[in-house]
């Protein structure tokens, strides 16, 4: 099964999960950069209100072609209980997502708020079949074994895809 892991990270927590997941699954990484270039204070003062309004950021890359993958994973930090503006833009930038299986994850200091529900809806609206979501706390990010649940979900998808003969 080919996996593409698309993620946005400002502090490195989401990147750490994405990199561990790529190492565990052999997936390809695509890091999305928010061109706003937030400072730590700016993330909270400017970014979180934009996230709560479900705004999209100007991002790089501006187009993300996932047509060559069977499964797409989208990861984001939690800002104001929601995906970041860069993550919102990343989902909108996905080309070839229709008909793919998808999984979403988020990283946060506390709970995920509406982040995973919102990502699930955005991916489904783009035609993806979202088969799971996973939330990681800051403590989980520091635990190298925490990514195992997400990697296990992807391995389960690979086995069910192979047994069904599916070619998503």
TrEMBL record:
InterPro entries: Flavodoxin/NO_synth, Flavodoxin_CS, Flavoprotein-like_sf
Domain Flavodoxin-like: 3-158
Cited Gene3D superfamilies: 3.40.50.360
Pfam families from the UniProt entry: Flavodoxin_4
Organism superkingdom: Archaea
Protein name: Flavodoxin
Natural source organism: Methanoculleus palmolei
């Amino acid at each position: 099964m080919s996996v593409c892991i698309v993620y946005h990270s400002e502090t490195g927590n989401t990147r750490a999960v994405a990199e561990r997941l790529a190492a565990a699954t052999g997936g390809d990484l695509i890091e999305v950069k928010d061109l706003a270039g937030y400072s730590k204070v700016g993330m909270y003062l400017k970014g979180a209100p934009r996230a709560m309004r479900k705004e999209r950021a100007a991002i790089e890359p501006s187009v993300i072609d996932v047509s060559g993958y069977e499964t797409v994973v989208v990861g984001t930090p939690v800002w104001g209980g929601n995906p970041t503006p860069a993550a919102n833009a990343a989902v909108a930038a996905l080309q070839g997502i229709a008909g793919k299986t998808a999984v979403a994850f988020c990283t946060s200091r506390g709970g995920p708020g509406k982040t995973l529900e919102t990502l699930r809806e955005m991916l489904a609206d783009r035609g993806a079949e979202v088969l799971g979501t996973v939330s990681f706390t800051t403590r989980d990010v520091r635990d190298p074994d925490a990514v195992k649940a997400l990697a296990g979900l992807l391995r389960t998808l690979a086995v069910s895809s192979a047994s069904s003969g599916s070619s998503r």
